[in-house]
């Protein structure tokens, strides 16, 4: 009898994993909203109750909606229970790129690939499955590559496991070859890494770049963009500081204008790392500053009444599909499907992260209280 190791009939751990996979898939089927339900509100409801990332929720909901489009593969998954949601999501994500007229072929391809061919066969990892999906698309859906051409010139940043950042720049193939060759040659000439070579080029350009650091004048601790500085990095950025702002004063700032002042913007972005909505991971640098109590309804322009919202959630709030209220301690209360959820700032100026200019006793007291 052929089977994947996760379907080993004599292994109780394998049996438990299969049961977990089936239970998880059944859970997401139950979480599927009605077709006429508001998408964002539905995801917010699940996010509030589970604490799961919004992207994962959206991917799982898409999977349970898309699986019926692959009937043979769907039956195989239900029969064997060998695939967890990570693998299923990788498959449905690729399936979304397959034209309708090629789905029957894609369905057969999946069944063939994910049916065991030997006794105790190792189940492919999600990354291997994703690679096979890319192979299918490259071979059978060549038009898909044309869609990526519109992404040329975009830059993406992603945190890596070592605490650094991976930077991806989309360009033409010719430009990519030229960039790679130039960085590799400069790395050899300067005896440094390609990343350092790129940084040397950038720092040598006449372009003016403004970045905010948070901390004391002699010890910056945090760099705008979500980077906590090491001791060596702190010493470096200290030498590049050209002006300072009193963030304690900014906390109490007020203006009659609609737009926050420069100091307010720096302060508010120092309070938060991401969009203020619970579960949203959009970086504060990519958010808009929103009046919690709307300006048109008498909401003042002062830090306690302003928080960052990504464009998506800003639109939701403007349309009154998302409700929130400022609290006296500087947090924000959201009501999501009638459930109260408090959003607590976690940026470098928040109560839990600000250490400079703080007395030891006060710091320990609030840490213990937390």
UniProtKB/TrEMBL annotation:
It comes from the Bacteria. Residues 265-315 form the HNH nuclease domain. InterPro entries: HNH_nuc (IPR003615). This is HNH nuclease domain-containing protein. It comes from Corynebacterium suranareeae.
